[in-house]
Amino acid sequence: MNSPSRVISFVNAGHFIDHYSMLIFAAAVIIMGPALGMAYSELLPYATPGFVAFGAGSLLTGWLGDRWSRRHMMLIFFIGIGASMIAVGFVQTPVQLGAALLAIGIFASIYHPVGTAMIVSYADRLGREMGINGVWGNLGVASSALVTGVIGQYLGWRFAFIVPGVVTILIGIGFAMSVVHEDRKGSKQAAAQARVAKQDMWRVVLSLLIVVIAISTTFNAVTVALPKLFAERLADLTKSPALLGVIAACVYVFGAMTQYTIGRLLDRYSLKTVALPLSFMLAPFLYLAASLNNLPLIVVSIGIVMGAFGQVTVNDAMVGKYTAEEWRSRAYAVRYFVGFTAAGASVGLVAWLYEQGGFVTMLHAFAALCLLAIAAALILPREIRTPQPA
Q: What are phi and psi for residue 124, nearest 5 degrees?
């Protein structure tokens, strides 16, 4: 039998790698552009197929996780995404770059429907483990900007992909040696389930659909655009790619703390009680960020990542609470298919909005989109309290 703590540790590491790998390009593109002789707005769209595959591939990977093996799918994730990162480090043309980034997106699509379902199956306290898992993903986002900036400045952008690729393959080997194919008979479900009135389930589905589209699009747009936004708006503080990476990483740390806090709150309170106040954070902070520079921009950016990453934890817990074990990977697959497909479109949208009016237009547009998060939280029904076994 697998040790729950060991499985969860590897799955958390996978969450770190998943987000780290998808955002190396967002940080490296600043120095890749001059090296390849292309502008930021010309180079960024090459990441779009990878982000679309990140979401679209989850339907197949979630099905395979339920019907075949979550353990085997996670092993493919570690080895495949590591090899794909290494491949980016050896590209010579924009077409090769797009193909390698697409491969990263395909393998990255395995993690969320499969890894998140494993977390739910092995967790004793769902909210706490979801919060901790979210922290690992957020640390991956933060570390991507930081480590890519440092490696890119001192070793070049190619090593910014090669080094984490090698490390990921080594972690995959450790996973293969430590985790066996799971037997899900009798897996824990009570901790993962909650109840709403049967006639109110349509409200859960509608709320999830609205908030996933709005938050996934905004989440991806912010994480893709933040390195470039800081490079433009923090010029009075620093122009060093490494230091800009440090600042971005520090901002993301607040998002990590928020995810842990939200996870703990979800163990004590209903989803609606936690989601409603959280939904009011993003729109005003995004609107304010459009006109700020230097230190005020950093402070407001902290509010943006706290709102975005906190919402992600709520969304994941919603699926975990309301789905049964045998359908859980597929339920997460649908959630991430919708979310990451919308997120994939956000890369091209960021590039287009940036051309139209810079970051002012982009941030105002996403502030308006995040008003939908408030509507989604209002739609959520109340949970039915059930007595806990002694």
A: -85, -40
Closest CA to 273 of 193, 195, 380, 371: 380
Spatial contact of 15 and 115, defined as CB atoms under 8 Å apart? yes
Say if residues 101 and 45 touch (Cβ distance below 8 Å): no
pLDDT in tens, 257-278: 888 888 888 878 888 888 889 8
Could you tell me the CA-to-CA distances from 342 to 307, 315, 346 in Å, in that order?
A: 18, 15, 7
Residue of 225, 245, 235, 362 whose CA lies nearest to 295: 235
- DSSP H helical ranges for 37-110: 40-43, 48-56, 58-67, 70-88, 94-108
Return the structure tokens found at 363.
């941030």
Give the Cα separation of 102 and 96 in Å (integer).
10
Distance between CA 247 and CA 122 in Å, rounded?
A: 35
pTM over 0.85: no
Spatial distance between the Cα atoms of 256 and 305, rounded to a whole number of angstroms: 9
190: DSSP letter: G
Using alpha carbons, select from 15, 40, 2 the residue that is nearest to residue 229: 40
